[in-house]
């Protein structure tokens, strides 16, 4: 008998993936956590019935989220990751030799523990000496911490459930306060195809706080619409302009300096939807 996982992308639009085996399921304090092995996407993490990351395309998402802001910052020594409990963003962050410490703050310690056991290719960097892992609400953390960072990455789930707080205007204001001078933030900011109004609202929230705001996009086939957006807010350098190149030893599969520049090329409809002149 065939078993399929189905996620509703929009009312009237669903994506299904055939499951080979159910690896792990758990009702945590915050969400329904499932890890599947699927026929086409490989291993897959699902939270509250929404695909978070898959073996087949996670490299596109994580390399885009991490290397664009880190390579356009002059010296990213201290990095904060909010969310990202699977460990993929941490893995990419710790490839940068400039990074002395990367702090990951996820509200759900059970996602981190499940990733350590069942998502080894994402979570390999949790054991790195430079990694500091805190189980806490990201909104509360940025509002109260005395730590300061060069780069803040927001690797949240969609703006419903526990992640809703990570899209509020006060969250972006608090991020600006925890950044050192010249700091950069970068957040995953949803689908230009499925939810363009959400992309627009987040862009304007960030642009009210940061002197430089830049939107870029990348293909992520397992996310709604197959196309994803990221928004950077910068207190200094322009995230569009890379300052360094990735190293060969990082063995990147998506990011390159040419791709960096191309990700920022926005099509006319997206510019209009977001209100970018
Ligand atoms: N790349 C994924 C995406 O775009 O769907 C997100 C991956 S990551 C698994 C999302 C993480 O955000 C989850 O581990 C979840 O526990 C965490 N999270 C949700 N709300 C949070 C909050 N308020 N503070 C910190 N982490 C949060």
UniProtKB/TrEMBL annotation:
Entry EC no(s): 2.5.1.16
CDD domains: AdoMet_MTases (cd02440)
A GO biological process held by the record: spermidine biosynthetic process
Boundaries of every PABS domain copy: 2-235
Xref: InterPro entries: PABS, PABS_CS, SAM-dependent_MTases_sf, Spermi_synthase, Spermidine_synt_N, Spermidine_synt_N_sf
Catalytic activity: S-adenosyl 3-(methylsulfanyl)propylamine + putrescine = S-methyl-5'-thioadenosine + spermidine + H(+)
Superkingdom of the source species: Bacteria
Gene Ontology terms, MF aspect: spermidine synthase activity
Pfam families named in the record: Spermine_synt_N, Spermine_synth
Annotated residues for binding of S-methyl-5'-thioadenosine: 31, 106, 137-138, 162
Pathway(s) served: Amine and polyamine biosynthesis; spermidine biosynthesis; spermidine from putrescine: step 1/1
Keywords: Polyamine biosynthesis, Spermidine biosynthesis, Transferase
CC per GO annotation: cytosol
UniProt-annotated binding residues for spermidine: 62, 86, 155-158
Active site: residue positions: 155 (proton acceptor)
Function, as annotated: Catalyzes the irreversible transfer of a propylamine group from the amino donor S-adenosylmethioninamine (decarboxy-AdoMet) to putrescine (1,4-diaminobutane) to yield spermidine.
Family stated for the protein in its record: Belongs to the spermidine/spermine synthase family.
Quaternary structure, from the entry: Homodimer or homotetramer.
NCBIfam families: PRK00811.1, speE
Name of this chain's protein: Polyamine aminopropyltransferase
Organism: Candidatus Fermentithermobacillus carboniphilus
Lineage: Bacteria, Bacillati, Bacillota, Candidatus Fermentithermobacillia, Candidatus Fermentithermobacillales
């Amino acid at each position: 008998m065939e078993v399929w996982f189905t996620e509703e992308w929009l009312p009237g639009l669903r994506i299904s993936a055939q499951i080979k085996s159910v690896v792990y399921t758990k009702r945590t304090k915050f969400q329904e956590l499932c890890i599947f092995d699927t026929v086409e996407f490989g291993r897959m993490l699902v939270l509250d019935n929404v695909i978070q990351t898959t073996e087949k395309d996670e490299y596109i998402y994580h390399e885009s989220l991490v290397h664009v802001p880190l390579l356009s910052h002059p010296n990213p020594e201290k990095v904060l990751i909010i969310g990202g409990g699977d460990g993929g963003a941490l893995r990419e962050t710790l490839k940068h030799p400039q990074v002395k410490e990367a702090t990951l703050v996820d509200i759900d310690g059970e996602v981190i523990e499940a990733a350590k056991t069942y998502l080894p290719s994402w979570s390999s960097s949790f054991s790195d000496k430079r990694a500091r892992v805190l189980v806490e609400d990201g909104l509360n953390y940025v509002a109260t911490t005395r730590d300061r960072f060069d780069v803040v990455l927001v690797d949240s789930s969609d703006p419903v459930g526990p992640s809703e707080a990570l899209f509020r205007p006060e969250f972006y204001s608090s991020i600006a306060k925890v950044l050192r001078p010249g700091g950069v933030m970068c957040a995953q900011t949803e689908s230009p195809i499925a939810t363009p109004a959400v992309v627009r609202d987040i862009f304007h929230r960030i642009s009210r706080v940061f002197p430089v705001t830049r939107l870029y996009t990348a293909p992520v086939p397992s996310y709604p619409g197959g196309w994803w957006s990221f928004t950077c807010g910068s207190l200094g350098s322009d995230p569009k302009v890379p300052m360094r190149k990735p190293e060969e030893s990082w063995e990147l599969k998506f990011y390159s300096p040419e791709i960096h520049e191309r990700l920022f090329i926005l099509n006319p409809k997206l510019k209009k939807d977001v209100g970018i002149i």
